[in-house]
Amino acid sequence: MIEFSSKSKSQFVGYFGVKNVEKIKRELILPTVENFFVARNIQSFKPIDESAAFADLDFDRKNFDDFFAHFYEFIVDGIHKNGDKVEIPVTYCITLDETNCSKTCEQTQIRYDEILLFDTPVFYFIYVDVKDIFSCLRANP
User: Fold this and answer.
1) Residue 57 DSSP SS3
2) Is 60 exceeded by the pLDDT of residue 86?
3) What would the mean pLDDT of 61-80 be, rounded to a whole number?
4) What are phi and psi of 103, to 5 degrees?
5) Smaller CB count within 10 Å for the chain: N or C?
6) How far is the C-alpha of 25 from the C-alpha of 97, rounded, in Å?
């Protein structure tokens, strides 16, 4: 899910390796993500690259160059104009760190947080409890 990145400023970037990651994606991650975005009426969304490793601490505005590099690379890089309309892609990452997710979706009860560009959500941290991952792996191996 998340791999080491020397770009990461945070002291803790979780790495979780499992043998059957496709089972977790198919049975837990994708249904969770799809339910979350359906509840928010968002039809188009994509995950950040799985090799990208960062946490909330990587968005520290004290070091603006690092903040902007991460913000651009993972969030605003896909903004483009389509005719007269500006399209802003929605990206997300799965986090195992509940401290990244201060909000709870009222419809799905999924914990999350978001980064806004003005008043438009452009990036979401979506929390998945590691206990749910273990349960998924244990069910019908």
Assistant:
1) helix
2) yes
3) 65
4) -115, 160
5) C
6) 18
- What is the pLDDT, as a whole number, of residue 5? 46
- Helix runs in the chain, H state only: 21-24, 30-39, 64-71, 130-138
CA distance 123 to 8: 18
**Which pair of tokens denotes residue 20?**
């059957």
Q: CB atoms < 10 A from the CB of 79, how many?
A: 13
Q: Which residues contact 137 (CB under 8 A, 6 or more apart)?
A: 18, 20, 23, 24
Residue 99 has pLDDT above 60, yes or no: yes
Question: Would you list the domain boundaries of the chain?
Answer: 21-138
Among candidate residues 88, 93, 96, 97, the one with its CA nearest the CA of residue 120: 88
* Amino acid 63: pLDDT: 59
> Measured between alpha carbons, how far is 67 from 71 in angstroms, rounded to an integer?
6
Give residue-wise pLDDT tens across range 109-120: 999 999 888 888
71 pLDDT more than 80? no
